[in-house]
Specification:
This is Diguanylate cyclase/phosphodiesterase with PAS/PAC sensor(S). It comes from Desulfovibrio ferrophilus. Pfam families: EAL, GGDEF, PAS_3. This protein is of the alpha+beta class. Helix content is 45%, strand content 21%. The strands form six sheets. Strands 20-21-23-24-25-26-27-28 form an eight-stranded mixed beta barrel, surrounded by five helices. A five-stranded antiparallel sheet has the order 4-3-7-6-5. A five-stranded antiparallel sheet has the order 9-8-12-11-10, sandwiched between helices. It has five domains: 83 residues; 94 residues, PAS domain (Beta-Lactamase), CATH 3.30.450.20; 128 residues, Beta-Lactamase, CATH 3.30.450; 163 residues, 2-Layer Sandwich (Alpha-Beta Plaits), CATH 3.30.70; 174 residues, EAL domain (TIM Barrel), CATH 3.20.20. It is rod-shaped, with a radius of gyration of 59 Å.
Length: 768
């Protein structure tokens, strides 16, 4: 039907050339015969007329035949078009320019329920009183196709109308309208709209900044929270497409760009500069929007301010790698830096570095004497001084409680490392004033300079520790640089330490006694108890060799108690059996560690009680350095010892540093001149004057004086002249076992006038 109303395109009918040739032959036949031209006869007009008729008939026959075939073909095509239109499942209709429905396909009739051909489309189909909005488009009836969406009255659904011009048989233009049901699409769009409205509502009321970007990264939406997060308003982001990128910290910009493309995952922590110039940390969560065609429709970004969390993370990371008290790098960071330096030395031929351990001397003494608060403050100030003494590329780390480590990098010669270490040593030794307490601190250093590339970090640390250990053996404030032979010394010390631990429990220690005499009449007034070690393989070992090791390892606590207890028990036994021993005084040395132990007074009280030793017959000798390191705390502890009735003597006077104001506060009984002064006093007048000054100082303070190391009669004479009360030394007697000391008491072993002792028991030195 539609093919009958709107003509189909076809070929125009034509005469066949063979038919025309046949008619022409018929007309020529009468005039030719056997190749000759024949003249017309009297019937010629009739024949001409007949020929014309035959030509006309032939032409008409051909035309009729051709038209018939053409019509049949058009009919077939029309039927084909009708079949196609009928089979089209979409709604289709045609209307005239004035809006009259000219044609409807079956689907359209079925859709609205009746055939409205001939009726105005705007009224029959849409219930309108005037032409449909899209029909007023004049261009639609010329040569354009239009697309519209509308909600149909005859059916509760949405359609999409595609309108196109179609030429009628009479030459006029009608409109072909094809309708497609888009209800599902509209439903999805509605759900999307509702979802977007809901999301927009949430976005506009959350602290997170929501950003929507198009497929090409173009800005589409920014939530009001942008003001809170960046300091910029939504209008700023609307007016400047790439405002966010311009705020990103330049060091994070490449990461930001990679994040937007999905190359860095769906979450990113990055920094921006807010409108006020402040740097903040943000976190962005990335969500890609996928359309129905499975193609990306853009990105949705949720951006939050995580500055507080990030600062906390940075703080925690810093705390994990730094010492809380001093702020220096801790052991973890130090180990990592050392490992990096070792690896760098393997890669770079001319890269040199040094490693040094520093151990703060007598820090425990300060903690025990003044309390950990003072000790901690001292440690803080020392750490600050050490940090200032190195270069910016160097590292100072706190490796343990009182041990620090120096990593000195990019050195051109070993001397530079030594200079830096000496600068640190000098800084440490500057007096500290903490809450009114003046502290004089020192530190021992063990260094490894320009280690060979084959040394790993563990070996490097081991060598530095060996050097440090030897520095501590040498005394306070010493520096030792590692050299290969130290490995042998370290093994020797380790063996000695193991033997020392065994000796404490194996009763290898014994006590010897050195007489102390009155210098003016050589009368015996007491003994000094001195510990000795009888090693099963090495024989008797000098105290100078094992006492420092015992101090360092803490074994001095057990050893010191053993000496005090054993000597008190021996003296008590002498007192019970010999009347001559009743007035004798027993002198026992207290080490620095012993003096600082919190239960020292109670421990000594217990020993006196269990051994039966009278307190007034016990004299405790404490070095000048030990007392002065903890002057204020020492006053209290010494007073408590004096309350027990014990005598107190300052040992090795002149080798340390003493404050006269503190010396006057100490409850002292005796002062012992160090043997180094006694040995030199008869060599020069100056040395004699030093001894004289010490004796006068003691007398002015009401103290009696003991000189140690008297080895010649001339020395005794000088000391007598200077009014020194007591003396001890090889001139009178070497340290002797208890049985020989007992004989000394009853007068069987007195020194000869020439000063050559009658009794030489063992060839050992005195106390260290």
């Amino acid at each position: 039907m539609i093919g009958q109303i709107y003509p189909l395109q076809g070929k125009r009918p034509t005469l066949f050339a063979p038919s025309l040739m046949a008619v022409g032959t018929l007309l020529l036949l009468p005039g030719k015969a056997h190749g000759a031209s024949l003249p017309f006869t009297g019937d010629a007009p009739l024949l001409i007329a007949l020929g014309v008729c035959l030509v006309v008939i032939a032409v008409l026959t051909i035309l009729i035949h051709t038209l018939r075939r053409h019509k049949l073909r058009c009919l077939e095509q029309s039927n084909e078009y009708d079949a196609l239109v009928d089979a089209f499942d979409g709604q289709l209709y045609i209307c005239s320019p004035d809006g009259t429905v000219e044609f409807m396909n079956p689907a359209m009739i079925k859709q609205i329920g009746r055939d409205v051909t001939g009726e105005p489309c705007y009224k029959a189909l849409f219930g309108l009183e005037e032409t449909c909005p899209w029909c007023v488009n004049v261009n639609l009836f010329i040569n354009e196709t239009a697309r519209y969406e509308f909600h149909a009255l005859w059916h509760s659904t949405w359609f999409e109308a595609v309108c196109a011009p179609v030429k009628r048989r009479d030459g006029k233009i009608s409109k072909l309208v094809m309708l497609t049901d888009i209800s599902k699409r509209k439903e999805m769009e509605n759900h999307l709209r509702i979802s977007e409205e809901r999301y927009r509502t949430i976005a506009e009321h959350t602290h997170a900044m929501e950003v929507w970007l198009g497929p090409e990264g173009e800005h589409r939406y920014t939530s009001p929270a942008c003001k809170h997060v960046t300091g910029y308003g939504t209008e700023d982001f609307d007016n400047e497409q790439h405002l966010m990128a311009s705020l990103v910290h330049r060091d994070d910009l490449s990461k930001w760009n990679d994040f937007l493309t999905g190359d860095l995952g769906d979450s990113l922590d990055f920094r921006i500069f807010r409108h006020d110039g402040a740097m903040h940390w943000l976190n962005a969560a990335r969500h890609e929007i996928i359309g129905q065609d499975n193609l990306s429709q853009g990105l949705r970004l949720s951006i939050r301010d995580i500055t507080e969390r990030k600062l906390l993370e940075i703080q925690l990371r810093y705390q994990a790698l730094h010492d809380n008290m001093t702020g220096l790098a801790n052991r973890v960071l130090a180990s990592d830096r050392i490992s990096q330096a070792v690896q760098r030395a393997k890669r770079r031929e001319h890269y040199h570095f040094a490693l040094a351990f520093a151990d703060i001397d007598r820090l425990k003494v300060i903690n025990d004497s003044f309390g950990h608060r003072i000790g901690d403050k001292a440690l803080e100030q020392i750490a600050a001084r050490m940090h200032k003494s190195v270069r910016s590329l160097d590292m100072v780390a706190r490796y343990s409680s009182d041990q620090f480590i120096f990593l000195l990098e990019e050195l051109d010669k070993p001397r530079k490392a030594i200079n830096i270490i000496n600068r640190a040593r000098a800084a440490i030794e500057e007096p500290l004033n903490i809450d009114g307490h003046e502290l004089n601190m020192t530190a021992c250093f063990g260094a490894v300079l320009f280690p060979p590339p084959e040394d790993d970090d563990a070996e490097l640390i081991r060598k530095a520790n060996i050097a440090l250990h030897l520095a501590k053996q040498a005394g306070y404030g010493k520096l030792k640089v590692f050299v290969p032979h130290m490995l042998d010394k370290a093994v020797e010390l380790m063996t000695l330490e193991n033997d020392l631990r065994r000796a404490v429990s194996g009763n290898e220690f014994f006590v010897e006694y050195q007489p102390i005499l009155s210098l003016h009449d050589s009368k015996l007034i007491g003994f000094e108890a001195l510990v000795r070690w009888n090693h099963p393989e090495r024989g008797v070992i000098s105290p100078a060799e094992f006492i420092p090791l015992a101090e360092e390892t803490g074994l001095i606590m057990v050893l010191g108690r053993h000496v005090l207890e054993e000597s008190c028990r021996t003296m008590s036994a002498w007192r019970e059996t010999m009347p001559q021993a009743q007035d004798l005084v027993l002198s026992v040395n207290l080490s620095a560690r012993q003096f600082t132990q919190s239960d020292l007074v109670d421990s000594i009280r217990e020993i006196l009680k269990t051994t039966g030793m009278p307190a007034d017959r016990l004299k405790l000798e404490i070095t000048e350095t030990t007392i002065m390191e903890n002057a204020e705390a020492a006053v209290d502890k010494l007073n408590r010892l004096k309350e027990l009735g014990i005598q107190i003597s300052i040992d090795d006077f002149g080798t340390g540093y003493s404050s006269m104001s503190y010396l006057q506060k100490f409850p002292l009984d005796h002062l012992k001149i160090d043997l180094s002064f006694v040995k030199r006093m008869d060599t020069t007048p100056e040395n004699r004057e030093i001894v004289k000054a010490i004796i006068n100082l003691a007398h002015n303070m009401g103290l009696q004086v003991i000189a140690e190391g008297v080895e010649k009669s001339s020395q005794q004479d000088i000391l007598n002249t200077l009014k020194c009360e007591y003396g001890q030394g090889f001139y009178f007697s070497r340290p002797v076992p208890a049985i020989d000391a007992k004989a000394y008491i009853i007068g069987d072993a007195l020194a000869e006038p020439e000063g050559k002792p009658q009794m030489v028991i063992t060839q050992v030195n005195t106390k260290p």
